[in-house]
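Slide 14.
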Amino acid sequence: MTLVQKMLLLGVLWAVALGGSAHAETAGEIAALAHKGTPEQELLQAVERNEDGFALTLEQAQAYRQAGVPETVVLAMLRHPAVEKASAESAMHAEIWRPFGIKVTWWKVIGFVGVFLFTGRWFVQLYASRKAGRPVMGRLFWLLSMCGSTLLLAYFVVGKNDSVGVLSNLFPCFVAAYNLYLDIRYHRANGVRAEDVAPARKAEPRAQPEPAGVEVAAGQ
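Slide 15: predicted structure.
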């Protein structure tokens, strides 16, 4: 028996000596209830009442099995919603790639995509302005702005919990969404598609003045 298993068994015996109750908040208390002969259904209900989950390793789970905790109860503790949520969050923060010594996680991938969209909107605007011959901010510009700001907000709110990043992207996201709404409403009301907007007219070439000698000859 390993040291961890011995410590768990001592915890079970200690909880039994104090008298376990039907309300169990830790895995040790549930093991104590199982040691006292509590029905399996009540043990499962005690697991469900726990809101924080059970941070069990596989070695600890095996120790609880040896201590007399039913297999279904051990599996319920391992599959607790709080545990699954924590494991999912840790998976999003887990390293998936390290190019040039830079740690890349799934949350960083979301942030990188947001930055790519938010920056790429200016290349779209530059192309539209060059094509029209005047400054133009088309619908695609506002769409990319809104999508990029939304992804960056998700990264800074959930992935990084950075208030500076949240504030720097919250207002642009709102402005982009509002301008996109105005653009769609305007073109629907006027029956014009965004791609049908006529470019600016090119300046007509000025008429070249005739030479003075020609006018004199015509007068004679």
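Speaker note: The chain is about 70% helix and 0% strand.
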